[in-house]
Write a structure and sequence with these properties.
The protein has 119 residues and is mainly alpha-helical. Helices cover 64% and strands 0% of the residues. It contains five helices and no strands. The protein has helices at 4-20, 28-37, 46-62, 71-90, 98-109.
């Protein structure tokens, strides 16, 4: 992250987070809405359950009993989503690359709902 490219990507991730959240906290519903708007899930499909497990894992990884995700949790969720995309493209041994993370952020920024804030 400590490079011009990494900092640029971090600013993009922050922009996505700000568009998805109200009050700098991401609720389960906001995460689900983001995934639906990005085209990764529909409200009824099984993939939606898989995506919600990513949200739950991020909160569990934190170690406290948080009910909403913060920016660091969001970064963790994006990393998991990008890793899934990398494995789908290149197989189970694929490494997470910056380009996959950038592609994930760009997909969120360009989603049909434009990820407008919940405020």
């Amino acid at each position: 992250w400590d490079s011009p490219h990494g900092r640029r990507l971090l600013r993009r991730v922050c922009k996505v987070f700000d568009r998805c959240c109200a009050g700098h906290e991401m609720t389960r519903q906001a995460f689900q809405k983001m995934c639906i708007e990005a085209g990764w899930a529909s409200p009824r499909d099984a993939r939606s359950m898989r995506l919600m497990s990513i949200y739950d894992r991020a909160l569990e990884a934190r170690g406290d009993e948080a009910l909403v995700a913060d920016f660091i949790d969001f970064m963790y969720m994006l990393e998991i989503l990008a890793s899934d995309k990398a494995r789908a493209k290149e197989g189970p041994e694929a490494a997470l690359e910056w380009s996959i993370l950038e592609e994930t952020c760009q997909q969120l920024l360009n989603s049909p709902g434009a990820l407008k804030s919940q405020a």
